[in-house]
TrEMBL record:
Class in the EC hierarchy, top level: hydrolase
Enzyme Commission identifier(s): 3.2.1.89
Keyword Ribosomal protein tagged: no
Signal peptide (residue range): 1-18
Entries under InterPro entries matching the protein: GH, Glyco_hydro_53
Keywords linked to the UniProt accession: Glycosidase, Hydrolase, Signal
Reactions accelerated catalytically: The enzyme specifically hydrolyzes (1->4)-beta-D-galactosidic linkages in type I arabinogalactans
Annotated protein name in UniProt: Arabinogalactan endo-beta-1,4-galactanase
Entry similarity comment: Belongs to the glycosyl hydrolase 53 family.
Top-rank taxon, per record: Eukaryota
Length: 360
């Protein structure tokens, strides 16, 4: 019996160890929605609760928040208030620094207004800005678990100065190193994981374009970060399939040995009247439906594949409750896409799909 109990205990311990550390959602827009449309989120019983409470009750343990430089929505003050809510609900915080006054993504990485436009000036500015953000968070009692130094920066950041493919990968590496140093020099205690976030989680070409060039420009750059992450959306074509996701992430762990990784943005449609306009991967459609059950199935599969690779520590659903912009992941396509990719109804009612985070 003792042997059997020991074996069972070892099995349970392995299962507990294998579970994803970070089960997350981006909730950046919740305070905007509460202010502008008076949204009230409701749990499965129809009870009105704060979004952070509903997320935590359904297995979410970390929330991602984008930070813009310009004063206003999504700025540092906005994010401090939001992070305090998350912390009070027992959630970890993942800070996503855009280093821009607005969206930063594969199509745009604009230098904030008033920042220098030369490499030396930007190297100092990104350090000072990052140090101010991190020290402010510590002073407000917020210790993020993860900080992204940039958002979807496959061709660099702070264009044109830090645009790797068109200007200089050495510039890109120098700017990112300055941002990383600011976090390490900050008052934050404990220190967060420093993360580099790209698009294209299932596209080895995108990953290699960035990482091979950065490693040539600065072979020591990996020592300045703890993890890497990428976005994974199924709307872009049949090549964005589960097999390529596994293969690309596996390749990345070989290129960056010892680093943790996440899929830090993802979404699957609840409804997609325009679905015929997108060449969804054949291992997803039509077998995975556009509904709550399909969202559960798809998230579970992504989580399973991340967990199966050494270093895989988490997944995060993008803007999970953005009820007045439910198209989500297609914002950068410049076209109408699947109209609803979130896990809440437009009236704030939670969908059955959210509870998938309690199972991964």
């Amino acid at each position: 019996m003792a042997i059997r109990n020991f074996a069972l205990g070892a099995l349970l311990a392995h299962a507990a160890q294998a579970a994803l550390q970070h089960k997350g959602a981006d909730w950046s827009s919740v305070a905007v929605l509460e202010r502008d449309i008076n949204i009230q989120y409701k749990d499965a019983q129809g009870t009105v609760k704060p979004l952070e409470t509903i997320l935590a009750e359904n297995g979410i343990n970390i929330v991602r928040q984008r930070v813009w430089v310009a004063k206003g929505d999504y700025d540092l003050d906005y994010n401090v208030a939001l992070a305090k809510r998350a912390k009070a609900a027992g959630l970890d915080v993942h800070i996503n620094l855009h280093y821009s006054d607005s969206w930063a993504d594969p199509g745009q990485q604009r230098i904030p207004a008033g920042w220098p436009t030369d490499l030396a000036g930007l190297t100092t500015q990104i350090y000072d800005y990052t140090l101010n953000v991190t020290n402010t968070l510590q002073a407000e009692g917020i210790q993020p678990a993860i900080i992204d130094i940039g958002n979807e920066i496959a061709d660099g950041l702070l264009w044109p100065v830090g645009r790797g493919g068109q200007t200089s990968w050495s510039n890109t590496a120098q700017l990112l190193s300055s941002a990383s140093k600011a976090i390490r020099d900050s008052d934050l205690n404990p220190k967060p994981k420093i993360n580099v976030h790209l698009n294209g989680a299932a596209d080895q070409g995108v990953q290699d374009f960035f990482w091979q060039n950065i490693l040539k420009a600065d072979p020591n750059f990996p020592s300045q970060l703890d993890m890497f992450s990428a976005s994974f959306y199924p709307f872009y074509g049949p090549e964005w399939n589960f097999t390529r996701l596994t293969n690309t992430l596996t390749h990345m762990t070989q290129l960056l040995p010892g680093k943790e990784f996440m899929v830090s943005e993802m979404a699957w449609p609840f409804t997609c009247a325009q679905g015929g306009n997108f060449a969804f991967p054949p291992d997803m459609r039509p077998s995975i439906p556009f509904n709550a059950e399909g969202q559960r199935t798809w998230v579970s599969e992504v989580a399973k594949r991340v967990e199966a690779i050494t270093g895989g520590v988490g997944v995060e659903y993008w803007e999970i409750g953005w009820v007045n912009n439910a198209g989500l992941a297609n914002r950068s396509l410049g076209q109408t896409g699947c109209e609803d990719n979130i896990m809440f109804e437009f009236n704030g009612n939670v969908r059955d799909s959210l509870s998938v985070f309690s199972t991964i």
